[in-house]
Write a structure and sequence with these properties.
The termini are far apart. The chain is 36% helix and 26% strand. It has four domains: 60 residues, Roll (Ubiquitin-like (UB roll)), CATH 3.10.20.30; 173 residues, Threonyl-trna Synthetase, Chain A, domain 2 (Threonyl-tRNA Synthetase, Chain A, domain 2, 2-Layer Sandwich), CATH 3.30.980.10; 282 residues, 2-Layer Sandwich (BirA Bifunctional Protein, domain 2); 92 residues, Anticodon-binding domain (Rossmann fold), CATH 3.40.50.800. It contains 20 helices and 34 strands. The chain has an eight-stranded mixed sheet with strand order 16-21-22-29-26-25-23-24, with helices on both faces. The chain is an alpha+beta fold. It binds one RNA strand of 75 nucleotides through strand 12, strand 13, helix 8, helix 11 and strand 26.
RNA sequence: GCCGUUGUAGCUCAGUGGUAGAGCACUUCCUUGGUAAGGAAGAGGUCAAGGGUUCAAUUCCCUUUAACGGCUCCA
């Protein structure tokens, strides 16, 4: 007999060789029908795999992340079985579960797969799922596994086998499909009730662009049709929030083929948002002791050689233009220009910390396939600043930047983000990163210290640092789930020396300052793209391109409407009158769709009493108000940058 | 940059080997209407660009370009 400890602490006795499924059955048949896999002593196991010693056991169902992953991993195998039957001779690479489903990478030889094939594959998968095939686990000696895949001429699986040792190789078979796989898998294919193959894409073998491109098929499956329908519904909702769609609907920005890819044109509505953001940044930075500077959009090659950017980033800078025998580059970053401002006049320790801020316009030649609405562009306006400080001042300065993030995030109600401490990868010193192992260690420690002392939750990621130092990135996700860095706070111990930046310290010695690069509001492009999705286009009053729309019931009240709008405009409120010859219902509908925060309906009643009927976007009628009272309330809401 | 898909009116999208259509938006007229679409008429397109096949190409083929879904990349 062995002892099985359940999550609630209960200990039960079973025969040696009991399976998680047996345990589930001993609790309830209903539970047993839902068990997908099990967590045995912290490892995810097949529900049908015998347990031979005392163990802690957690049964995993669809509601557990590991249960879901197992379900999708098994679905990938089911898809592979379907692909093999429709595309004989296909060779498979790997087919893992991902956040929303699974994929399988495959080499189709000279065959091609089209979107229509996905329909046929789904049909085949449904057929195969109904066969109720068990996923059978089998441990295989390495030489036998090698023989098996050599016989199949499958170089991909042989490559995988190369990294495995005897004793850790298992095969899983369901129906006619056998795969080298660590597992675990769900008990049988009948659990998979709803199948949707979502897309077909290319993916480099082992993620390396020098390698062959394999065909990747993405899919998602569910234990019931209802859940699939809900998922598709959710995708539909997400698409409505997509900043590219909203940006067009709300006339925020546009792209034009003649201007060029990744070069957004900001329409008047978008420009209002830009100006509001800059106003916020200026106020905040002024209060935090920053000084504003302005720098050119281009600079000579020599400066980027000094900074060290050119060797690292030449490929993603616009190619140089030649003038008077000199090469000039469009700037891809503002730091070198700012360093030159630091260097323009001799500095004493009394001048530090020096904080130079600029909403700098940068150009980056991003790869064509990487462009994505406003989130990834080739022309960007960065909420940039560089802080030059002593080692002693570093902690306070770095912390102050972090505090500034938090202050901003509060204003915007940003709460779904992850702080990422991005560290260097020691093996890439001298290549991707400046070769200063000691400084890396030291500054990474400093930054981690700030996060820990301020109780900021964060994750650490290797090999994500800038070439000149570690950084803290704020990661966010777009409506359709793509990850982006929204804001960044970086340490730079390299450029100060490269530019020979110096200040005279208290001992009258020359010292190199530490530099902090920071962009709490990221770039206008990415930030506004993010805000569009974050607010689903419903900007708070202070950001809304039109803050108040006055809607006269009919032409008779047009003059009164204009009087009100004039009054609001005088108080710096962005007000407009809907003077179209339309019924009030139509005017309201159109204004609602444009997501204007306040509508003022005015007719006979309001005109006679010098009042307005207030309507709040998305919330409907908000009652009659005195004109002056409304003005005062809205003005306060705007000035306080309230979210509601 | 790589793999795949797509490109028709300002927007969303039908359609066809015999030189194009809807809804919304726009213009004009009628209507002056009280909280999410009043009615009528009109205007609007080198069917992404270039080349090829064909008596004839928006439609089929090739190239280019752009967007989209991924991969790679992201100071």
């Amino acid at each position: 007999m062995i002892h099985i400890t359940l999550p609630d602490g209960a200990v039960r006795q079973y025969e040696k060789g009991v399976t998680a499924l047996d345990v589930a059955k001993s609790i309830s048949e209903g539970l047993a029908r839902k068990v997908l896999a099990a967590n045995v002593n912290g490892q995810v196991w097949d529900a049908g795999r015998p347990i031979n010693e005392d163990a802690s056991l957690k049964l995993l169902t669809w509601t557990d992340t590991d249960g879901k992953s197992t379900f999708w991993h098994s679905s990938a195998h089911l898809m592979a079985e379907a692909v093999e039957s429709l595309f004989p001779g296909v060779k498979f690479w790997v087919g893992p579960p991902v956040e929303n489903g699974f994929y399988y990478d495959m080499d189709l030889g000279d065959k091609k797969m089209s979107e229509e094939d996905l329909i046929a594959l789904e049909k085949k998968m449904n057929e195969l799922a109904k066969k109720n095939s068990t996923y059978v686990r089998k441990e295989i000696p390495k030489d036998e596994a090698v023989r098996y895949f050599t016989g199949k001429g499958d170089e991909y699986k042989l490559d995988l086998l190369g990294g495995l040792k005897d004793g850790e190789i298992t095969f899983y078979t369901q129906g006619n499909f056998t795969d080298l796989c660590r597992g675990p898998h769900i008990p049988n294919t009948s659990f998979i009730k709803a199948i949707k193959l979502t897309s077909i894409a290319g993916a480099y073998w082992k993620g390396d662009e020098k390698n062959k491109m394999l065909t990747r098929v993405y899919g998602v499956t569910f234990p019931s049709q209802k859940e699939l329908d809900e998922y598709l519904q959710m995708l539909e909702e997400a698409r409505k929030r997509d900043h590219r769609k909203l940006g067009k609907e709300l006339s925020i920005f546009t792209m034009d083929d003649d201007v060029g890819p990744g070069l957004p044109l900001w329409l008047p509505n978008g420009t209002i948002i830009i100006e509001e953001l800059e106003k916020l940044a200026k106020e905040t930075e002024l209060a935090a002791g920053y000084k504003r500077v302005v720098t050119p959009h281009i600079a000579k090659e020599s400066m980027y050689l000094t900074s060290g950017h050119l060797p690292y980033y030449q490929d993603s800078m616009y190619p140089p233009m030649e003038l008077e025998g000199q090469k000039y580059y469009l700037k891809a970053m503002n730091c070198p220009h700012h360093h030159k401002i630091f260097a323009a006049e001799p500095k004493s320790y009394k001048d530090l910390p020096l904080r130079l801020a600029e909403y700098g316009t940068c150009y980056r030649y991003e790869q064509s396939g990487e462009l994505f609405g406003l989130m990834r562009v080739r022309c960007l306006h960065m909420n940039d600043a560089h802080i030059y400080c002593t080692k002693e001042q570093f902690y306070e300065e770095f912390k102050a930047v972090n505090d500034m993030y938090i202050k901003y995030f509060k204003i915007f109600g940003v709460d779904k983000y992850v702080m990422r401490l991005s560290l260097h990868e020691p093996s890439k010193l001298g290549k991707k990163y400046v070769d200063e192992p000691e400084l890396w260690k030291e500054t990474e420690e400093l930054v981690r210290d700030v996060l820990i002392k301020t109780n900021t939750p964060f994750v650490e990621v290797q090999d994500e640092a800038a070439f000149y130092g570690p950084k803290i990135d704020v990661q966010i996700w777009s409506a359709i789930g793509r990850e982006f860095t929204l804001a960044t706070n970086q340490v730079d111990f390299a450029q100060g020396r490269r530019f020979k930046l110096e200040f005279t310290n208290q001992d009258n010695k020359a010292e190199t300052p530490l530099i902090i690069h920071r962009a709490p509001l990221g770039t206008h492009e990415r930030f506004i793209g993010f805000l569009l999705e974050h607010y689903a286009g419903k900007f708070p009053a202070w950001l809304a391109p039109v803050q108040v729309k006055v809607l006269p019931i009919s032409d008779k009240f047009l003059d009164y409407a204009k009087t009100i709008s004039q009054k609001l405009k005088k108080a710096d409120i962005r007000a407009e009158v809907d003077d179209r010859n339309e019924k009030i219902g139509k005017k309201i509908r159109d204004t609602e769709l444009m997501k204007v925060p306040y509508m003022l309906v005015v007719g006979e009643k309001e005109m006679n009493e010098n009042k307005v009927a207030v309507r709040r976007q998305g919330k409907g009628d908000a009652g009659i108000k005195d004109v002056d009272e409304f003005l005062k309330d809205v003005k306060t809401e705007i000035e306080e940058r309230r979210s509601e």
